[in-house]
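Q: Is it fine to ask for two folds in a single conversation?
A: Yes, each is treated on its own. Send the first.
Q: Here.
A: Result:
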Amino acid sequence: MSKHILMVVTSNDRLGDHGGATGTWLEELAGAYYTFIDAGHTVSIASTRGGSAPLDPGSLQEPWLTETGRRFQHDARATAALRDTLPIEGLKASTFDAIYLVGGAGTAWDFPASTPLTRLIEALDRSGRVVAAVCHGVLGLTTARCNHDKPLVAGRAVTGVSNAEERAIGYDKIVPLLPEERMNQLGAQYSCAAEPFQSHVVRDGNLLTGQNPASAAPLAVEVLRALA
């Protein structure tokens, strides 16, 4: 039976006061997108503001541009959806079977600041639907709360881009929030791969998280298992 999956991407194209360009990391979007589409499911793409959503320029260059990324770039339907994303505000949780928060450093600014995104995540979680996030996208989970008014991630097994990975690419001095640090502050049970940039996926009930770009497609596979 076909499911309806909402993929959420950032609307933010700047690295705060540092001024560099950012956006969604293409592989994190494309890897999951085609895992869902090729399995016969329906995918909608939304962003915090709606409309055209930026891609991180770094993800469009070698060696980061993968075959899946190239497929997305040449897919008229997929690129049109990214140019005309749905605004999060007004979306109803009952419309979707799962939400997948796509990463990219831009999410560190607009995901935690989006009240409509927080409310949508809370509604999906409380109805038992699948809530998934990868890399910096996990920061969208950090403002959500569960039925008992404690942080959604408190006491739950999670992952997300690690402090070591942030330091390796110099983002530890740029992004306003470090996912590993913030998850630990909220009482989550954070874990990561033994080596930076290796795939690592964690499932805790209906909450599924992936560590980095290499984890995007494997996380999407786990989402499909959860939906089944």
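Q: Second one now.
A: Result:
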Amino acid sequence: MEKRIRVVVAKPGLDGHDRGAKVVARALRDAGMEVIYTGLRQTPEAIYQTCIQEDADVLCLSSLSGAHDYLFPKVAEIFKQNGVNDVLILGGGIVPEEDIGELKDAGIEEIFGPGTRTDYIVKYIETHLKKAI
């Protein structure tokens, strides 16, 4: 049996809007990936622990609240501090263009904004995995 890509979809911080995260989670599931959705209002530490416990290949962070510039780098930093460098970390939501460079410098591999086609996200994950599946 072939191993499926394991993706954790997480909503860090106090953002209470998760429609986009659920749409992405469904699309990834429909593409054959195993998806674990953490639910709303997760701490960076809890997101990291979920990824470790679930042996995630990919982490998709979503923020619509404007806290992406703090929360996304905080999550990536926890991975770095613990020597975990084989999880593909992606971000999405309402992220201004001028913030994307800093987020990528912090360890977020790619940012997907509103209107991004879900098939593009699927293809991106399939071609940029850090772990052998």
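Q: Anything structural to flag on that second result?
A: Two points. The longest strand covers residues 58-63. Residues 6-126 form a domain with the Rossmann fold fold (CATH 3.40.50.280).
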